[in-house]
Design a protein that fits this description.
Blueprint lengths: L1 H18 L4 H18 L4 H10 L1 H23 L2 H10 L7 H16 L2 H18 L4 H18 L4 H10 L3 H28 L11 H5 L10 H11 L4 H19 L4 H10 L9 H4 L8 H20 L3 H11 L4 H16 L2 H12 L6 H9 L13 H10 L10 H19 L4
Helix pairs in contact: 1-2, 2-16, 3-16, 4-9, 4-13, 4-14, 4-16, 6-7, 6-8, 6-10, 7-8, 7-21, 8-10, 8-21, 9-19, 9-20, 10-22, 12-13, 16-19, 18-19
Length: about 425
């Protein structure tokens, strides 16, 4: 009973924060207090609870560093001209009949490069939404294509903080996870692309001419040299270099381009890396502003607090009752089905990917003892499910960024086709064991 009261108080705090538009960090801090009080009521000492909670922070430390690096990467690609050049080139290839499919593909490509759904939505997402709206495409459909594309990279990119988080909590190799993720998602990707193509063919659209080149050229040279940071990043990923080293090397090349090619002052570049890029053109602000180390501060705090939860749950046994229920459920349903149901339940309350991943992992690790399989199961559930929940920051932020309706999650086919495909293949392998 005490366990339910504790978790209920935490859930209520999250609901209140969401209702009054208060940062979820406040609810997480309240939750930390609740879980410490629960431990004290269970006769654990205050010092042991504090020590145990912070002992788990090291699990997420590497992820927090990667997030800060991604913040610099996004900002440096803006000031160095990489993102403006990519966006300018991309807009020219969008045609009415293929608009949705190209929108999905372009957002997927940029998210694979950048490893962030938020950064993709704020750049390529806004640009493709503008083009789709001008061509008469429903925001419901275009928003879904953008959200789905943004999460292709958020799930599959080796520079994604989500991929690093799953790798860290499960103790698995990042690059092996990425390879298995790509193998398990290429069919849902193709299905999604085909669906968007079919919808595009049978939708009424209009041909328009939209060019951002003139606007971007006022601030950037738009040289092919701007692609260098992206090419360097791809090369280092291909060589399986350390992810932080790969990102920082790409940042270095962007800084050099910003200084020598774009003529930016070093102080301006440094300020951009820390506080994000700030354009002088109001009409481009929604597409270019942002990034930087500071932009990742809230997410880093969320990861930090979430890591302390893992230690507290381990010390107090708060999830023991839930684990027992999950184990009984796994006797009736397949392990992956239970993982999906758990991640949905957690995501409805947690409202973010980080806590969903960590709690789902703790709750399901006994029914999926294979670490490698657990890592892929988490990628196919806890990473994607939060994006489908309108009040979760994983879905709400990209949707709000591009100005799409919350219902567009229904058109984000890749996000739910991936777990459905994994569920189907698991059932097939169970029935036909030789597959």
């Amino acid at each position: 009973m005490l366990e339910l009261l504790t978790l209920g108080a935490f859930a209520l705090a999250l609901v209140i924060c969401l209702s009054f538009n208060v940062t979820v960090v406040v609810a997480l801090l309240f939750g930390y207090v609740c879980f410490v009080v629960y431990g004290l009521l269970k006769k654990h000492t205050f010092s042991s609870l504090i020590i145990k909670s912070f002992s788990q922070v090291r699990t997420g430390f590497n992820v927090m560093l990667i997030l800060l690096c991604i913040g610099m990467l996004t900002a440096s690609w803006k000031i160095g001209g990489t993102i403006p050049y990519l966006v300018t080139c991309s807009v020219d290839i969008i045609t009415p009949a293929y608009c949705l499919a190209i929108t999905f593909a372009l957002n997927a490509a940029l998210s694979l490069l950048m490893g962030t759904a938020f950064g993709t939505a704020a750049t390529m997402g806004i640009m493709t939404m503008t083009v789709c709206s001008a061509m008469g495409i429903s925001p419901f459909l275009s928003g879904g294509a953008i959200l789905a594309g943004a999460y292709v990279g958020d799930r599959n990119s080796p520079v994604s903080s989500s991929a690093s988080l799953v790798s860290a909590v499960t103790g698995t190799n990042l690059y092996k996870n990425v390879r298995l993720m790509l193998l398990s998602s290429w069919i849902p990707f193709v299905f999604s692309l085909v669906i968007y193509l079919l919808i595009g063919f049978y939708s009424e659209t209009k041909d328009v001419q939209i060019s951002l080149k003139d606007e971007f050229s006022k601030e950037f040279l738009l040289s092919a040299w701007s692609l260098l940071p992206a090419l360097v990043l791809l090369l280092l990923i291909f060589l399986k270099a350390n992810i932080k080293l790969a990102i920082l090397t790409s940042v270095l090349f962007s800084v050099l381009l910003a200084y020598f090619l774009e003529g930016r002052e070093f102080s301006e570049i440094l300020n951009c890396l820390i506080f994000g890029y700030k354009t002088n053109q109001a009409e481009l602000a929604h597409m270019l502003d942002g990034g930087g180390i500071i932009s990742m501060a809230t997410v880093v705090v969320i990861i930090f607090i979430s890591c302390t939860y893992a230690g507290l749950f381990e010390e107090t046994g708060l999830l023991v009752v839930i684990k027992q229920s999950i184990k009984k459920l796994s006797n009736k349903l397949s392990p992956f089905t239970v993982v999906i149901l758990t991640s949905v339940s957690v995501a409805l309350i947690a409202c973010n990917q980080v806590l969903t991943v960590m709690l789902t992992k703790q709750a399901c690790e006994e029914i999926v003892p294979d670490k490698q399989k657990l890592a892929i199961d988490l990628e196919n559930s806890a990473i994607l499910v939060p994006a489908l929940i309108p009040w979760s920051i994983a879905g709400a932020v990209p949707i709000a960024t591009v100005g799409a309706p919350a219902s567009c999650v229904l058109a984000a086919f890749f996000i739910y086709l991936t777990p459905l495909w994994s569920l189907a293949t698991e059932k097939l392998k169970t029935k036909y064991w030789w597959l």
